[in-house]
Specification:
Blueprint lengths: L4 E3 L2 E4 L2 E5 L5 E3 L9 E6 L6 E8 L10 E6 L5 E6 L7 E9 L3 E2 L7 E4 L4
Parallel strand pairs: 3-10
Antiparallel strand pairs: 1-2, 2-3, 4-5, 5-8, 6-7, 6-9, 9-11
Length: about 120
């Protein structure tokens, strides 16, 4: 029916069915973690034109935590990584990722991953 979820993988809008991307899998490159940086990585989601990478302090866990967003262009690459620099030492951060493209529903956000910077 128009305007209702047709399935977990599509949305019907008028007479158009929008496909939904698969949920991306985001991981932390723990070997690259330092006292001031954390690197996250993911494989490309076929058809994604941009990725919305979000991060926050793990301690910001109230009802409406403040996620900081970064738009990353999708390209022909099959693997992506992003390094967060100038972080505070011995501090835990959370990260999540969404795949996006015109004509598609955004993917569900990846599972939240966390990492703690090293003690300086």
């Amino acid at each position: 029916a128009p305007g209702y979820m047709d399935s977990a993988a599509s949305l019907v809008v008028g007479e158009t069915t929008l496909k939904r991307f698969d949920r991306p899998v985001l991981t932390v490159d723990t070997a690259a973690t330092t006292s001031t940086s954390i690197t996250v990585k993911w494989n490309a989601v076929p058809g994604a034109k941009t990725y919305l990478l979000e991060w926050k302090l793990a301690s910001d866990n109230g009802a409406n935590p403040t996620w900081i967003t970064i738009n990353i262009p999708g390209t022909a690459y099959t693997e992506f990584f992003y390094t967060f620099n100038l972080l505070s030492a011995n501090t835990r951060y959370h990260f999540r990722l969404t795949a996006k493209a015109p004509g598609y529903m955004d993917s569900a956000a990846s599972l939240v991953v966390g990492e703690t910077t090293l003690i300086s």
